[in-house]
Amino acid sequence: MREIVTYVEMTGSDQLARAEPAPGLALETLDRDSPLVVDLQVKIGSPYGWKCADRTDQQWAAWYAEHPDRLFRLLTFHGEPAGLVAYDLHPGDGVEIETFGLVPDFVGRGLGGYALTLALEQAWKLAPTVTRVWLHTSSLDHPHALRNYHRRGLRTFKTEAGDRT
């Protein structure tokens, strides 16, 4: 399947264009050993063909071993698990949002803009001198994903075309 991967970044917290708050939506620390980490990534990624949606337990164990410093945050809506954010801290004061998404039951409720606002605000607080926050999205992801990223102040810095296998 043909896809375009778009990389977006923000190089200062002052570039964040906050969305209107969504009452009831919160971002909470999630322990990396929580079964919600895998469960939510599968639920979020399945509709879009994310590779993680088909990982075996052994592949998940290898993934965890490859990313020992990844940080997780749980998006909740009125206390219910609604989404996930995963962060990678990179040398040189960069933070990559490796996973961002809402589970299907919460898509289409107008929560994405504020969820991304919370995720970006948290990214800027993860290290004492963060100078860059970035992530990537695919043309096979939710059709409003890239528009949401741009509306929050992230700018495209690279695109790649390819085939998803």
Q: What would you say about this model in short?
A:
This is GNAT superfamily N-acetyltransferase. Helix content is 25%, strand content 35%.
Write the layout of secondary structure elements.
Elements: E1 2-10, E2 25-30, H1 35-45, H2 57-66, E3 71-77, E4 80-90, E5 94-102, H3 112-125, E6 132-138, H4 145-151, E7 155-163
Parallel strand pairs: 5-6
Antiparallel strand pairs: 1-6, 1-7, 2-3, 3-4, 4-5
Report on this structure.
Helices cover 25% and strands 35% of the residues. A 7-stranded mixed beta sheet has the order 2-3-4-5-6-1-7, sandwiched between helices. It has 165 residues and is α+β, with helices and mostly antiparallel strands. It has helices spanning 35-45, 57-66, 112-125, 145-151; strands at 2-10, 25-30, 71-77, 80-90, 94-102, 132-138, 155-163. The chain has one domain (2-163): 3-Layer(aba) Sandwich (Aminopeptidase), CATH 3.40.630.30. Residues 25-165 form the N-acetyltransferase domain.
Order of helices and strands: EEHHEEEHEHE
CATH topology: Aminopeptidase
Unreliable runs, pLDDT <50, ≥5 residues?
none
- The first-level CATH class is given as Alpha Beta
Question: Could you say what the CATH architecture is?
Answer: 3-Layer(aba) Sandwich
Strand content: 35-45%
The proportion of residues forming helix, as a percent range, comes to 25-40%
**Count of distinct strands:** 7
CATH superfamily: Gcn5-related N-acetyltransferase (GNAT)
Radius of gyration: 15 Å
Give the distance, in angstroms, between the N- and C-terminal Cα atoms.
Answer: 7 Å
* Mean residue pLDDT: 92
- Which geometry do the CA atoms define? globular
Structural class: alpha+beta
List the strand order in the largest sheet.
2-3-4-5-6-1-7
Count of alpha and pi helical runs: 4
Number of domains: 1
- Biggest β-sheet: count, sense, barrel? 7 strands, mixed
